[in-house]
Write a structure and sequence with these properties.
This protein is of the alpha/beta class. The chain is built from eleven helices and nine strands. Helix 4 links the parallel strand 3 and strand 4. Bound molecules: phosphoric acid mono(formamide)ester. Phosphoric acid mono(formamide)ester (CP) binds next to helix 2.
Length: about 300
Amino acid sequence: MKRKDILGIKDLTRAEINEILSTANVMRDMIDRGEKSSALRGKSVTTLFYENSTRTRNSFETAAKNLGASTNSITVSTSSVQKGESLVDTGRTLDALKTDVIVIRHSVAGSSKLLAETVNASVINAGDGMNEHPSQALLDGLTAKRHFGNVDGKKVVIVGDIKHSRVARSDAILFGMLGASVTVCAPYSLLPCGIDGLGCDVETDFDKAIHGANIVIPLRVQRERMDGAYFSTQEEYHEYYGVTQKRLELCSDDCIVMHPGPINRGSEISGDVADGINSMIVEQVTNGVAVRMAMLDLLVNGDNRL
Ligand code: CP
């Protein structure tokens, strides 16, 4: 891979996506065998998260350690950000500390790009506002590919709070590039303008959208990004847009359910679906470590660094 940063799926070529996924597949087999690597020995990876995270932050740190790198974690709530330090100045400080990779999550779209333009370190976007979450889409792609072998021609339905979701954008672009057909589904209030520009179908009737689906991806309602009411009650939302066992009967027989997490049972997904045989939610978490190992290895040891 010949690039300094990974900021979004839309920046990646199909060849780069395939390179990350095939490397991640090897990494996943390594994880299953309990093996570690020294590919990043002597390198350091810093996580800089301005928003909460359980899965992404921990899996980047686990991935870095699995490859022999040292890790540093900047907790924004206890860092000099609280004293007014800007993102650019924080980035310059991390550069002076000679970190090799900065993994950033920020509430503002474009913040990872700003950081990447500021620092010599490689930058990985771990979610910027409502823009992109590339490592999530890549781990979703890996999970689907490992399950089906190939996602070319599969029907992917992404349902829920599309408007506030960076995962919806990154997944729609990625699965489209892998040859799947993508439908996004939400009430009008949770559909952003221009979403069809990503090449996906748009539907407000979930029972219609889910028909024949091979992959269903429910998304959490992101109340923290909402400034008003987008639907009446959680019960009504679940009735019309929740992924339930009854709705899975409308899907293809081989259908899988993926969810980026965190899940809200009884809202976008019922508890029995989350824990059921179609659910890949736990598998996604382990694949997240594998994908992030691949991203770190390819960025740090890629051709641009030789
Ligand atoms: N999917 C995801 O980004 O989860 P976290 O917010 O826990 O990192």
